[in-house]
Amino acid sequence: MDDSPENSDSVPWEEDAPDPAPSAAELEAAGQSAMFGDPVPAPVPAPIPAPAAKPAVQPPNAAADNQPYRVLARKYRPQTFSELIGQEPMVRTLANAIERDRLAHAFLMTGVRGVGKTSTARLIAKALNCIGPDGQGGPTIDPCGKCEPCIAIAEGRHIDVIEMDAASHTGVDDVREIIEAVRYAAVSARYKIYIIDEVHMLSRNAFNALLKTLEEPPAHVKFLFATTEVDKLPVTVLSRTQRFDLRRIQAGELEAHFAKICGLEGIEAEAEAIHMIAAAAEGSVRDGLSILDQAIAHADLEHDAKVTAARVRDMLGLADKGAQRRLLGHLLDGDAKVLLAGIDDQHALGVEPLALIRGLMDLVHRITVAKVGGGAPEAPTSEERDALQEWTGRLSIGQLHRLWQLLLKGHDEVRGAPDPLVSAQMALLRALHAADLPDPGKLAKKLEELGQAALAAPSPAPAGAAGTAPAAKLDWAQLVEQIAHSGRAGHMLLANRMQMQVRVITLAAGQLTFQRVPGFADDLASDMRRALADVTQVTWDVQQIEAPLAEGAATPTLVEQAEAASRAEEAQIRSDPLIKAALEAFPGAEILPQDESAPSHNHKTVPWSRNA
Predict the structure, then answer these.
(1) Nearest C-alpha neighbor of 512 from the set 555, 544, 553
(2) In terms of Cα–Cα distance, which of 378, 370, 364, 354 is closest to 331?
(3) What is the reported pLDDT for 566?
């Protein structure tokens, strides 16, 4: 029998000495090769050779191994707390807790999207399980990133760090699995950590099932929750966790962060473009990196793939800053025709009407802040700063607040309008014409001065005097009486309302200014305008003044005058010596008005009788 290796009965892979254990990368490569086949293409059996393919154009920073592209938001996810921007208070609290060995058993990270909630949870997991490069380290706020726990957690494959998406695992059965698993100690790490993302999506029964375990978990277990809607969490859960509210990232920090990433990627970007991306991110790092990714892809390859402000503006549909300032200037100057032309030009360039209104609101806000603070307006360029400074000195606080309210109302109208462009035009025209209106405070003061001047005016000259205007002969009581006896439908009722409700401020030929007795909300001015025109054959301008007036600025109503005259007459009667003696002689006696059926305009006796 041949003992050669070819004919040996031994297992062929046991003939040679065993090779060293392959690494994770080699195993992964081997698995891919086994699944998808050898990367070297097999020979083509066709006799006709395929045409030579053109070499693919690789981006400047393409990886040499031709790995799939990772978006910036994933590629530059923070791996240490020092890389987590804008959350210094939380990092300081965690560092103190780790240093003093006062670690809570459950943490809750909340905030808007893209500020680092899930990244913070993973960093806490690394900080608690890091053992250092020498394997002897303990919990630290600066995990080494080189030990096996740090590497495994960063790659998402650590057996003791379980990350669950509550949006897809909402039921009580999913929580029951966690409750059963927490009883067992960690396999290789210091702590068994459960990261539950979007925890507010758990059902009510799931929360109730988790409460007891969350309150008294084993010493080797830590819970890390992340959510964008903390108000949906039960109070019982909030009371069992240590809560961290992650703040929105300031625009300045975002600009510095995006500029740094552009440098690492070898991408040239204009400062104004970075500023616009940071503003559009609205405090979210992930949103900003997604926009930056899109801006890099949108860059013109013919100009060295530079990210320019014009390209970003076109991509986001934003208005040009210069065009925004010109529109605000046309609005403040009251030039409606040029304002409409500017709106049409911006719309033709692809600027959305809502973005146009928001740009104007941003300018008004910066002008107001500079006006209140007394400093220079915030602006990226000196040209814009000079324009805002000029408006700051020109506009008053009241005008700025009124303009802001008009733009805010226009913004809401444009957002819900069937035709946003038409709505934006009408909103800006309304703001333009409102600039000519007087200030409400000054208007009320002017009306008060007019009322006082009317009371202080000299009495009308006698009839027939030279230059006497017909308005001097007008008598309010006579006008009301004419309306009452005009015989037209509804005039009798209107006359009664005028007697009881109208306090005359000024009365002239064809003009009436009045104030109404409080407590009435119907439209009386229109009815009086028509009735006065009917009885006088003159067109009347009737205006009701709502603003409070000085005492005595308005004449009392006819009913109030009659009541005052009645009280004065009664007081005069009571002062008569004979009446005084009668009232003293008959205690409890009352003075009653005379019988209404008697003709009061012809009587010669005292209109009140005594009744013992």
Answers:
(1) 544
(2) 364
(3) 84
**Is pLDDT at 106 greater than 90 in this prediction?**
yes
Burial level of 258, CB count in 10 A (0-12/13-18/19+)?
A: buried
Where are any strands of DSSP class E within 447-487? Answer: none
How far apart CA 162 and CA 222 sit, in angstroms, is: 11
DSSP reduced 3-state for 187: coil
Rounded distance between C-alpha atoms, residue 66 and residue 44, angstroms:
24
| pLDDT at residue number 456 | 55
The mean of the pLDDT values for the chain is 78
SS3 for 388-435, per residue? HHHHHHHCCHHHHHHHHHHHHHHHHHHHHCCCHHHHHHHHHHHHHHHC
Q: Cβ neighbours of residue 141 under 8 Å, at least 6 residues apart?
A: 81, 91, 94, 95, 98, 99, 127
Question: What span, in angstroms and rounded, lies between the C-alpha atoms of 93 and 116?
Answer: 16
Percentage with pLDDT > 90 across the chain: 20
Strand partners, 300: 306
Closest by alpha carbon to 90, among 78, 81, 100? 81
In angstroms, how far is CA 95 from the centroid of its own chain? Answer: 34
Q: Are 331 and 432 in contact, with CB atoms under 8 Å apart?
A: yes
